[in-house]
Amino acid sequence: MMLLLAAVLSQALGAGLSLDAPGDAAAREILFQPEYAFCNDGAYPLTEAEARWCPLVDTHGAAHCPGLATACQGPRATLAGSGRLSSRTVEDADAGAVDDAQAESPADQDPEVTRDAGGERLSGEGPRRERKDSAEALELPVLGGVAQILFWAIIVLAAVLVVAAVFRNVVRDDRPEPDDAADEPDDATDEADDDARAAAIVAMETDVDRLLALAGQAARDGAYGEAVDFAHAALLRRLDHEGLIRLHASRTNGEYIRELGSNTALHQPVRDALRRVDRAQFGPEPPGRTVYEDIRGRVTSIVKTVGPMALLLAALLGAGLACDSATQPRYPWSTSPSGTDAVFELLERQGLAASYRSAPLTDLDADEARTDPLIVMLGGAAATDAEWQALQAWVREGGQLVLAGSELPRWVRVTYVHDPEPDLDALEYEAPFALTPSEDAVVVRAGDWSGPGASGNDYITAFDLGFGGVTVLADDHLFTNAALAFPGNPEALVQTVGSFERSEVEFVDAWASVGARNPAESIAHTHLTAAIVQLLVLVVALYLWRGVRFGRGRDPAGQSRRAFVQHAVAMGRQYEKAKAATFAAGLFSAWVLERLRNRFSSAASAGLLGLAQEVARVSGRDETDVMRLLVTAHGAIESRLSPGGTGEDLALIRDLGRLMRDIGETT
Amino acid sequence: MIPAEIGETCERIRTEVARVLLGQDEVVEHALVAILAGGHVLIEGVPGLGKTLLVRVLSVVLGCSHKRIQFTPDLMPSDVTGGNVFNSKSETFEFLSGPVFTQLLLADEINRAPAKTQSALLEAMQEASVTVDGQTRPLPHPFFVMATQNPVESQGTYPLPEAQLDRFMLKIGVRHPSTAVEKQILRNHLQGFDPSALAHAQLQQVVDSEGLLAMQQGLREVLVSDDLLDYITDIIGRTRAHRAVLLGASPRGSIALAAASRARAAMLGREFVIPDDVKTLAPAVLRHRIILQPDAEFEGISPDLCVEQILSEAQVPKTAA
User: What is the ipTM of this complex?
Assistant: First the structure.
């Protein structure tokens, strides 16, 4: 294995600096694509870690990536978080801070976190690297005693309010619906008014299911006309609820049909249904059972269709939003210098399928090790003891493993060494694709399997284990987009990976095995299974107790604008309490008379009589009644400064309000 | 004739007219509504939009006679109605009928003639007869007046009095055709279409005068329910109570709205009127029957705006809202 790798590297290096090598030509073509902004945008902000490529630009030249030299002179970005989902902030002197959702490569993470203070840690010794959570933990501020009491009091109060709201909704069946008319108890006292109100409530029913139920009830009673009306209302309400039409009392069925004109799926069936409704409601023959059932069938089929269609529409809209390029970061991680898109594309062009591994390493089957993909563990990768054991067994059965700057298990007797005096010539020969070795370069010490390096410290080393093999690299820089910018590296990468004779490559980083394979596993990871099961049990219990709805089905509260006269009445009540309702009545009367005089200016010159005649003509009221009301209003103006007030003052305000409504004035 | 047959005939008429007159579907539909309902149409539009062509095409398709009067400031009533002329041979006065004695009359730029001449049409439009020198002569049936006026030029014009306006069942605003339609018109002309030689267009006569009268009779079969009568009267009542309106629509307006709605229902093959018929035709029936308050006019409020507001407030019968 070792000899094979050395031969491959020698061959790669022999042709490495040639831009005509297939790997180099492909890499140049890939990096010239506009999505690789660091090669095409001189203003691209590099991180400090990415900027470590810059010395190599000076010595070797980034022939595949012309923009990198300019980017090296530009501003630096700072990173928050780690892994593929970390974000970068660019300090822009002109425009302030600009955030881009961009992650740092595992290779860019500080190597010190994985090594001891002396720069050397033998595998299996000292504390193991723990799997890091990408999400930052929520930290509550340190609260004092009173603040803590207040904090928990607010939480408990909120919980109590929620429970109380649910309880009140459950037990409110016996309470009457709130009604604006309650403001005017004098209008709702007799039985006839109660009947009218009940009829109005039925007429204003907005729930589709209840409207269909009312239609069925009316049909059973033989009132097919009413049944058709309810079915008609159910259809329009459903269309309105889904936002397909704008329901209004002044709109006709024809307008609703025209409004649905762009909806090819619904236009025709709705038109057919509404035409039949029109015939039933305005045609020469009153609707019978057959007509009703025909309409009911059409309405039901549409009502059942609209919901799923709306959901589908919402899903498509959501998908569209999710795919909206505007929501993507300006500089995505995958095409950044630390990203791996170019590496993946290069490998795929060479016939190798590359992907990130999401399944746990314990899923590796030793029996299929000879045909499994090549596993490349990147710098941020961390494995549990069980996973390392599984990997060892897998390698022994023929698997090929590359450890590129990742933590090393005990059974790999290779160490990372913080070498203060590296053999630069050897490393330069061995690692042309990596960073220029500096004085504190990290190298690989192969121990018993010492490699070709003169000092025994190498950039890359390999050994066989059982039927398989393990290759160790000092870091994972070779597997980043930036590495491909330098001549020779792409060909070296292609030939190195190709030497393992596998058709697939799986990269393992910090996110491997973090994801769940199904929703149940996802819930299990959050340790919320018990809570969710309890909630489901609660829902089932409420369903068994109360049915589909936990409380009484109610119409949503309509948005109503109070008329000016209602404000005047309310103010009059306040004045009445203060024994000064006469004052409010006088003010409102003055306002009404002024409005009337402005509107009927020609008649107003004849005094109250002319005004009353004109108002009576327009409103259709009896002229004497109008005159009496105007005279009363005039008297109220005269006596508005008198103390006191009675219910008659409020009645005067209401009468004047009705008069204004009758002549079309907005109050 | 039953409404289904009326609808079928009207569809054929529209198809035939559309072969020659492009992009004026609404005008054609309203003209047919007025003809079926026995009313007259006032068209407000600039010259060159095909008004004369419409009358000529309709006369061919409907099998009716037609004449055109160009109204001018010096036009006399006798130029419209005709008059008695002394015949020196027979030494008697003989009645020489004017252009009003036709079935389809195009009164072009009617507001250019003085009120006296305009009024000559009053009796003709309302009574379908003409009285000259004390003798009343009936006009041919059916009798349909399509008058036009230019909304742009106001100098040298005589605005139609309210009484005259009320005689028109519908007032239609004609707009310029769309670019695509205008391109098709150009293409037709380049291919040899000559509006002055309709014979070359090989228009088919769809119905004759008797058939047209039968269609008018057939409208009686169209039902207008009580709910719709309430709806119509509600709309008309609101024109009288609207704050921007000085004088609302008259009962003749109610009658016109009901009749026009019936005609539209029949044209669509229905034997009953629905609210959509009323609401669709209300602007054309009411816009010229509303007189605005002076201050409302000053604020830029138009009759169309008032009607639109009224229709948006009037509750449609059997509404589900």
Answer: 0.85
